[in-house]
Amino acid sequence: MGPPTVVVMLTPLESVFDAIAGLPVHPLVVHFAVVLLPLAALGLIVLVIVPSWADRFGWLTLGTLVVGTGAAFVAKESGEALAARVGEPEAHAAWGDLLPILAVALVAVAGIWFFLHRRSGGAGRPRSLATTASGLIAAVLAVVVTGVTVLVGHSGAQAAWAGVVTSANDHPTAAEPSASGSSTASGSSTPSGSPTPTSSGSAGAATSYTMADVASHAKRSSCWAAVDGNVYDLTTWIDAHPGGPQRIIALCGTDATAAFTAEHGNQKRPAQVLRQYLLGPLS
Question: Which fold has domain 172-281?
């Protein structure tokens, strides 16, 4: 009788697309897609325009396209796994879902063009109508794939960094000395639940807010919310939120503790971002 068989069950958050050595797979693989796909697509356009180069660089270009397409697929799946942890940026997810489909189509059309090109060249004949047509379609698809790849990369970078950059610009006092000569940490390092000095008060004073104050800021142009006994100004975070603006707009003027806990639990990154928008304690 052989040794017992151990069956390992992977939950969605423990899938092969989720993490490697404790790091999320998505940022590790997405760069392969956003670099290799445009590079191969632009190379294909050059080969279609200058077919004499296709015999030398055709296989390399097709191989790079295949690898880039595989990376786009892994990036899509790993992005969905990451979204289960930190929320899903809607625009980035939409472009990310489209990119692998377009990349597969480009690989197929490029393969057909390359096959027809080699067959025509081997027979010593000029390019056929089918070769020209497939080359034109491949070039157009290559432009589309390049554009969509740029949109995927841009929307992903915006989802990851826009809130950080915006909060840094909107809270200059975090790095500048106050009028009394002390540094004012308006949320960047203030623990949740600690009062935050405001510019209108003295250096040792703290402003507290009521739910009536929060309720008076219940619109997109001025959006406050209470979470865990503190009040936050989320106005600039609305458009930067990875899950889309509507999720934040729905919380404006409310106590959002339950919603925030249900969505993020004890995750550190969302809590760190939230602290950047701290106004003060809820009284």
Answer: Flavocytochrome B2; Chain A, domain 1 (3.10.120)
